[in-house]
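Task: encode each sequence below as structure tokens.

Item 1
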Amino acid sequence: MPYVLRHKDTSELFTCKLINVYDFEYHGVKMWNNQGIAEAEYASFLLEKGLDELWNWELLELAENLIKLGNVKLNNNATKRLFLTLEGKVETR
């Protein structure tokens, strides 16, 4: 299963501008397919995105279908935020 970044206090999933396999930009959930790569890259990735409070974020293994559903709910809208509920569902606000 892929790994994503979740904010420890709010359960917000980290979203940003990404490039899909067809070289199109979209706003979606940042994910890594490998735990080792995720652990090696997430801190520098957050710093690159301008976030310096790295301790507020944690890596979380999340089913790919939930990531895809979250991307659909984001609707390529950078003003929407995506959260993982206590029930394990994704919702936008």
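Item 2
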Amino acid sequence: MDILLQVAVILVCLFYGARKGGVALGLLGGIGIVIMTFVFKLPPGKPPVDVMLTIIAVVAASATLQASGGLEVLLKGAEKLLRRNPKYVSILAPFTTCLLTILCGTGHVVYTMLPIIYDIAIKNNIRPERPMAASSVASQMGILASPVSVAVVSLVAFLAKVPVGDRPIDFIQLLSITIPSTLAGVLMIGIYSWFRGKDLSDDADFQKRIADPEQRQFIFGDSATLMGKVLSRGQWTAMWIFIGSIVVVALLGAFPTLRPLFGGKSLSMVLTIQMFMLLAGALMIVFTKTDPSTIGKTEVFRAGMIAVVAVFGIAWMADTVFEAHLPELKAALTDLVKTQPWTYAIALILVSKLVNSQAAAISAMVPVGLAIGVPPGYIVAFAAASYGYFILPTYPSDLAAIQFDRSGTTKIGKFVVNHSFIVPGFIGVGTSCLIGFMLAKAAGLI
């Protein structure tokens, strides 16, 4: 009975924290950990310090990229690709936003691209909902394919503690599954989006709106573009430093012999990521005219620090409860997760919707899954299920897509759940989980 009450406390903290938003999600974990320790007398669990430090290092580097203007180099390149191929915007736009997320480690880069995607679609008489909704979903899916995302570095840190055979699933092995499975999901989203909804010429509601000259001007409006912007040498330098650091980290992950040995073992990838992300940020400051005081004011830094607090509070609270009841949980759930491992994916996607964060969902569920016997291969195969916050249209990127689509085609339906993002979300996550399972099985992880 105690464990049911304790899980109820966790769910209340998650639900109320998610409703409040921002750092509230992590801070509510503080209420939970105090209740568990002082009311239920459970020994406090272990905060995920390695995960948090890795997040801080990655966020610091990504925020420095944004503050230096290096991010605009990537955004301008993406816009150039889309404007050269406007007819294929419904497929190219989600791939573009996904790739930007993979490079930058955060889906928040999509905000700058959304008005550009809208402009390209509406000026070519393409239903804006098609690329807009797909791009929002794809930008979040890219998080699990990014070597510098909070979710991936968290997952690497957790998997490092549970070997498969004689070695843990490492950084490169994880990405060799999550990158192709993510891209397959984005491709299926693009194919679906190509055909979704009525053409603008056949949409009676849209035609009625543009019959009003004022509405027509509002809908078609002025072009949003970065094409005329002149980029400085410092912006290019910052971009190449950041990309170069990612490449170096990938090489060190692929070839452990390149890392120094300590006690007969190669330097861990968790520490390697931390070191080179801090180095990247330092080099950008040294070799560009970036004002360090602006780094903490960027959107990337703000969102990243919120993620640190969320991971701290949620993971500590969950670890306290599940560590205390580990024997009972193993006895009750081991057979279930071994015979029906897909149930882990269902639990992960539901928790993700509650916490509105892939990193927070992974921090809450992966340690629990590993503790009760979910094989690490299944954890990797179903990693895409950590993106479930498309189910309700409450995430900032979805709301931004609705706002930027002045045509009104990207919308929340009458029944709330019938919104523009739910079908692309299920198609993308479902495809990624299926391909992830096949790749994990082929790699011998399952």
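Check on item 2: The beta strands are 261-262, 265-266. The two ends are 34 Å apart (CA to CA).
End of task.
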